[in-house]
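tool=predict chain=A
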Amino acid sequence: MTANKSFSRKDRVSEQIRRELAELIRTELKDPRVGMISITDVEVTADYAHAKVFFSSLAGSENLSAVMTGLEKASGFLRRELGKRISIHTTPQLHFVFDHSLERGADLSKLIQEAVAISDKTDPDTDR
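tool=predict ok
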């Protein structure tokens, strides 16, 4: 087997952790602070001891600290349940990180729409 595999074991483990955490949060976590979040990515260290769990939330930036508190409080439970569902030697410590990319994408889309609207008003001859 070559060292440059297209989908390494670490990638497969990260993806499995992402899927399992999303399911656990959706079905098992009862903390109202967490609400509706999406797990966007998981990065696992080479020794599988730690996992950065990137998430986005529909709760908005103003509720981010409450969401983070809820996730940190639940991290022990989530790690324990994750250990039951996936078979790796060490279940990683979970470190939650807010993923700003969806928020930035929405802001950019809004700016583009505004620019197009301004362009349409100033140049009515443009065919679209």
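The first strand starts at residue 37 and ends at 44. The longest helix spans residues 64-85.
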